[in-house]
Specification:
By secondary structure, this protein is mainly beta. It has 1 helix and 9 strands, in the order E-E-E-H-E-E-E-E-E-E. It has a single domain, classed as Quinone Oxidoreductase, Chain A, domain 1, CATH 3.90.180. The strands form 3 sheets. Strands 3-7-8-9 form a 4-stranded antiparallel sheet, with no helix packed on it. A 3-stranded antiparallel sheet has the order 2-1-6, with no helix packed on it. A hairpin with a 7-residue loop joins strand 1 and strand 2. The longest helix has 8 residues. The structure holds zinc ion. The site of zinc ion (ZN) has 4 residues, from loops.
Length: 104
Amino acid sequence: MKSYQLVAPNAPLELVETETPEPQGTEVLVKITACGVCHSDLHFWHGYYDLGDGKKMTLEDRNISLPFTMGHEPVGEVVAFGPDAKSDAEVGKTYMVFPWTGLW
Ligand SMILES: [Zn+2]
């Protein structure tokens, strides 16, 4: 599995290849084909959120550690379901993943 990870603030993303995971429990494995980048991702890349008046909230403040794969607005092909997953989605079809509720 390939991912582009943030390894240091303001640095180019780094291509990382890892073992493709087996979905466990209610997990769904999705092969991501495209992913939006929103302003949250830019804050991650900078290493902090600018709260104004010189105040910053760091990734550490949010319990986020590097390396980190950005992107929470993905689209991709469903590849496999964990044994406890309950979904109307089908393997081989393309879905948008809404990170707070699942596949659409
Ligand atoms: Zn977002």
